[in-house]
Design goal:
Distance between the termini: 30 Å
Helix content: 25-40%
Number of strands: 13
CATH class of the largest domain: Alpha Beta
Number of helices: 14
Largest sheet: 6 strands, mixed
Number of domains: 2
């Protein structure tokens, strides 16, 4: 495979040169490419180098070719740290950053990981750890943050970001993130098993959801300012697929992917159900109560009926190990019990607009509070 020096780190090119004779000698019947995609974890060291397709923060597609199983990994982001622990890779982690307070069945193990910062770590701090791989949320891959992918590749460091908002975030992109971890770390059997289980559980819930007799309109918000809430379009998360697949309609209020929603706009939209998410906060009940107790919202159907639920931001936006577990907790949001609010991976996205389309503000410059 031909690739530019920026795409294949120096250590990988050296490994290719040194190992070319061995690769050819081992191909008695079939010629093998220098870089394979995926592979059987039983192949061990012989499965490298491995090439995966990634997307940088601007949406540009790049290739990352990993020449050997990563041993020193910096992880930026809660869901990515959970994936490493789930697949028995936490001993490779030399530093973590930007964790949140979302629920995790591995909270105790994650708490023991070496933390660089509770916020986004600096480029200098990451460099000091001498990683051979950076597994990071894509918003960190900017010149004014930890640096773009070519910056790290030039220093012999591979970068593995999850599919980000520029490409659209959905269930399939989450499964792709899991697949990449399996390929890069030689854990394909475990990651494929996990993905099959998640798809099976979600599909089963989706089949039960077809029994729903109504199609409530569901609005998802996050706390914004004093009298505003953040709105997220379907491209900024996974929860819309869950709502639509459960027989509900995820409300699309604007052509913008993200905007601030005033109280007046919530009243005008009059959702049947409301989902509240909070980033890096564990006091979601406070936000829920704030909505339910606001007298200005008393005539909103969701408020009047008490149909306001809390959903974990990491899971509902980026996807996490609790993806399928989110469905039973989503019951109030899309359909009446006993049908959980979830969907099959093929559920269509919603297309309904609000009843008024009224907006109080244009999209904020700082972007969504739950970054990709």
């Amino acid at each position: 495979m031909n690739a530019s020096p920026l795409r294949i780190p120096i250590r990988v090119r050296a490994a290719l040169a040194a190992g070319s004779a061995l690769l050819l000698a081992g191909c008695a019947n079939t010629a093998q490419p220098a870089a394979v995609r995926g592979g059987d974890e039983a192949a061990g060291r012989d499965r490298y180098p491995v090439t995966v397709d990634v997307v940088d923060n601007s949406g540009k597609k790049l290739e990352q070719t990993v020449g050997a199983e990563p041993k020193r990994v910096v992880v930026i982001g809660q869901a990515l740290a959970e994936l490493m622990v789930e697949f028995g890779l936490d001993d490779r982690i030399v530093g973590v950053g930007y964790l949140d307070n979302s629920y995790s069945k591995y909270a105790d193990r994650i708490a023991k990981l070496p933390e660089i910062s509770d916020q986004l770590p600096s480029r200098k701090a990451v460099l000091a750890l001498r990683p051979d791989l950076v597994l990071t949320m894509s918003f960190a891959l900017k010149p004014d943050k930890i640096g773009e992918i070519p910056f790290w590749n030039e220093r012999g460091v591979d970068v593995l970001p999850p599919v980000n908002y520029t490409a659209g975030r959905d269930l399939d992109s989450y499964y792709e993130d899991v697949r990449h971890v399996g390929e890069v770390f030689g854990r394909t059997e475990r990651t494929e098993s996990y993905t099959r289980e998640q798809k099976s559980r979600i599909a089963a819930i989706g089949r039960r959801a077809k029994k729903a007799t109504d199609s409530p309109e569901v609005l998802r918000v996050a706390s914004g300012g004093r009298d505003t809430y953040d709105y997220y379009a379907p491209s900024l998360g996974l929860v819309d697929e869950m709502v639509n697949g459960a027989g509900g309609t995820y409300m699309e209020l604007t052509d913008d992917s993200y905007a601030q929603l005033s109280l007046e706009s919530i009243v005008a939209a009059d959702p049947d159900k409301i989902i509240v998410t909070e980033f890096q906060k564990s006091d979601g009940e406070k936000s829920r109560d704030r909505l339910l107790r606001d007298p200005r919202l008393k005539n909103v159907t969701a408020i009047r009926n008490g149909d306001v639920m809390i959903a974990d931001c990491t899971t509902s936006i980026r996807g996490s190990l609790a993806l399928a577990d989110l469905c039973p907790r989503s019951t109030p949001c899309a359909v009446r019990p006993p049908v959980p609010s979830c969907t099959s991976p093929t559920a269509p996205r919603g297309s309904a607009r609000s009843r008024s389309g009224a907006w109080a503000a244009s999209p904020p410059r700082n972007g969504p509070r739950c970054p990709p």
